[in-house]
Structures are given as C-alpha cells and as structure tokens.
Amino acid sequence: MPDVLIFADTVRDPALRHEVPLSVGDPFFYAEAGGTRHIVISSLELPRVEALPGPYAIHPWEEFGLDELLASGLDREGAVLELLVRAAARLGIREACVPHDFPLELADRLRADGVQLTVDRDLFAGRRRVKTEAEIAGIRRAQRGTEAALDAARALLRDSAPGPDGFLHQGGAILTCERLKAAIRATFLEHGLAADELIVSTGAQTAVGHDEGSGPIRPNEPVLLDLFPRDPESGCHTDMTRTWVWGTPDPELVAWHALCLRSLNEAIAGARPGVTGKELHFAACDLFEQAGQPTQRSKEPGTVLASGFYHALGHGVGLEVHEEPGVGRSGGAFVAGDVLALEPGLYRPGYGGVRLEDTVLVTPAGAVTFADYPYDLEP
After folding, report:
1. Are residues 328 and 198 in the same domain?
2. Are residues 175 and 61 in the same domain?
3. What phi and psi, each to the nearest 5 degrees, are found at residue 71?
4. Confidence of residue 294 (pLDDT cuts 50, 70, 90)
5. Do 137 and 124 share a structural domain?
6. pLDDT digits (tens, 9 = 90+) for 127-169
7. What does DSSP say about strands 116-119 and 95-98: parallel, antiparallel, or unpaired?
8. Would you call 274 exposed, middle or buried from its count of C-beta atoms within 10 A (0-12, 13-18, 19+)?
9. What is the pLDDT of residue 2?
C-alpha cells in the first residue's frame, strides 16, 4: 500500500472523517507510513484522539518543534506548516498519495522538501465505499429521525382543510412550505440530527429538482419532501424523498407516481454487487421511455432536458450526501457495503413533479432498504 497524507478537519473532510471517526473542527495531519497510521495534532485534541479505538500512533505538535518554531517569530500558520514538513520527514515519507483537495500551500512546501505527492481521487473515494458498522449505525439513526420528521409534516397536512382563498389552512393559518420545514427541523433536533438544507416544495416548484420550496400549499397539488440530514456522531447522512397530494391528485400525477414507485422497486431489486450504476440507470430509462417519457439517454446530445426523467437514478450516500458510486450514465460496479440513494422522478416545467427516494445498503445477497415508510401519494 502507498503512503498516505491528509491535512484537513473531520467536520468538512469526509476522507479524513472516514479514517479518524471523530468530529475535530481544526485541521490536523493524518499519515500512513510503513503500515502505521499516524495522527499529528494539536495537544488540545490529545485526550479525545487517544480515546479512539483505532491503532494510531499519536503525535502532539510539540513533538516536531512547535514551541521552537513559534519562538523563532513565525506566526501560528507558518509554524504549523513547517512542523508538518518536519513530521513527514521524521516519519520517513518521501512519496505519498493525497486527496484531490489536499492544500496547495502544504503540497508546494512538501514538494520543495523532496516529497513526491500524487493525487489519487479513486483511492480515497474507494476507501469510503464499504461502510463501517459505526457509519451504518449512523445512517440508521438519521433514517429513523427522517421518518419521524416526515410524520410531523404529514400530521400537519392531514390536519389541514381548504380555505376560501384556495390554500390549505391548519390551526387557523395558511399552511406553507415554511411551516412544514419548521416541523421537520424541530423533529431533527429532537433526534439529534443536523440539516443545513432540506427540500419542501409545492406545485410547479416540484418540477425543479433542488428547489428548496416556499410559500402556501394548495389542495390537489404535489408537495415534494426531500430530506437528507446528518447524524453528527458518525458524520453520515441518509437521503429520502416522498411526494404527497392533499385532496384529489391529477390523473397524470397518479400515473407518474405509479411509474416512479415501480422504478424504485425495480432498482432496489436490481442493486447487487457487480451490477453497475449505469446498468441500473438504463433499466430505469427503459421503463420511463416505454411510458413515453424523455430521459437523459433519449434526449438529443448537447441539449438540456427539463422534463421527464431528467436526472440520474441515484448516487452513493454516507459521509457526503452525494458520493461514489454514481448511479447514472457513467456509474461503475457496486460492491457489498455500498450505500445508495435511489431516486426516480418525473417532471414537467410549470406543472410539477413526482420523486420517490430510499437509501439502501448493498449486501452480497442484494439491496436492503434503510427505510420503513409508506409510499402513498395521499399524506
């Protein structure tokens, strides 16, 4: 195995969070050299890092001369840069693979010291493909909280009634996307989940894949909820979408919903080790094209598709909401331990759309869903 270097924090960097499963907000140095895993870190973090179960060799910055460097007149950033170069030399690292977002300043300084660095995006993405037990447990926690949040939103919709202004009313006030989001965020908080963004869109907004949604909700129109919170303990996300209509949905929406549900069920049944994301995506295209819907595969090259099945079937999910493997026109083979979000959808600008999404674990025997939640179009 090649030597490895990462310099980042574990809050924002999934490659490092996978190697060091602890939330550390300040950057530190992680190295693999000669088969040993090293952590070079501020003494402030030593007690927490030393409590980790992994077989790490842990080095405080003082070991590489932090006090001396600061006393020489260097500022903290300059001192840390120099001590990291010293650390690489002391650990015997002369060649190493680094992630694609390795800091350029540090890379330049290491190369000036004779260290050969090679960017290897696939190496670090591949390490995260097979989820650990702790990561899977975190995804399950996020999933349970997401289902509870959907219950909270669904309760508001069920308790609503049309008002004379044409909007749904609940509790004496117009029911809005913002009110549903507030109920969802409150439930996330109760379950210890974090979510900077979420989608609750309605009406024609639902035709725009990542429109976060706003405004009053009308009866008989789609309400699309796409939730992807993070479990802070593991750093992992789930990803789940349901589409509801209060009242009587348009027959076209009913047909779209049935097609999306069939596509989702077929995708879950088809996801297994050795199957490629491209194969699974094209199987969904087959279904939608047979129903007369345009897809990414059937569109004219170079044109933008805004209706029909205009996005990929899904993506990997874990320490990032979107990560490897891809489940689209260029998706590679799945491996046991992959976690996938599968999300077929159909849309038309100015009208609306339907999307259904579940997160699944690829096992040697096939895919197992994390979700235990109905798909009904009626909330």
Report:
1. yes
2. no
3. -65, -25
4. very high
5. no
6. 999 999 999 999 999 999 999 999 999 999 999 999 999 999 9
7. parallel
8. exposed
9. 87
DSSP 295: B
CA atoms within 13 A on the CB side of 350: 0
List, as one string, the DSSP characters of 33-64.
ETTEEEEEE-GGGHHHHHTSSS-EEEEEGGGG
pTM for the full model?
0.94
Does residue 341 form part of some domain? yes
Q: Are residues 183 and 290 in the same domain?
A: yes
Query: What CA–CA distance (Å, rounded) separates 81 from 66?
Result: 10
Mean pLDDT of all residues belonging to the chain: 97
Report how far residue 257's alpha carbon sits from residue 164's, in angstroms, rounded to the nearest whole number. Answer: 29
Could you report the per-residue pLDDT of 21-53, keeping only the tens digit for each?
A: 999 999 999 999 999 999 999 999 999 999 998
Residue 27: closest CA among 43, 38, 11, 14: 11
> Containing domain of residue 228, as a range?
133-369
CB neighbourhood size of 196 (10 A): 7
pLDDT (average), residues 102-109: 97
Helices (H), the chain: 14-19, 46-50, 66-71, 76-90, 104-112, 121-129, 133-158, 177-190, 251-270, 277-290
Q: What would the two tokens of residue 208 be?
A: 């725009």
The CATH code of the domain that includes 75 is 3.40.350.10
- Give the tokens for residue 1: 């195995």
Beta-carbon contacts of 251 under 8 Å, excluding residues fewer than 6 positions away, are: none
